[in-house]
Design brief:
The protein is mostly beta strands. It has one domain. Helix content is about 0%, strand content about 60%. A hairpin with a 2-residue loop joins strand 2 (about 15-25) and strand 3 (about 30-35). The chain is globular, with a radius of gyration of 12 Å. The model has no long low-confidence stretch (mean pLDDT about 95).
């Protein structure tokens, strides 16, 4: 089941391309995103769905 409302993802303040956002098992949602071209490091990630924003302080490691 694909999430019906738009999903936006930003990594390091840059928009990431969302290829898939949907339910893959009971209570388990999956997001497939393309990480923007960023230098190696840790970057904050934010997910927004249906006007709700993910918690702050979450980072994702990026390597080259």
């Amino acid at each position: 089941m694909v999430v019906p409302s738009p999903v936006t993802v930003t990594i390091g303040g840059q928009q990431a391309s969302v290829g898939f956002a949907g339910l893959v098992a009971s209570g388990e949602f999956q997001l497939n995103v393309v990480v923007p071209n960023l230098p190696a490091g840790e970057y904050p990630i934010t997910i927004q769905v249906n006007g709700q924003t993910s918690q702050s302080g979450v980072v994702i490691p990026v390597s080259q």
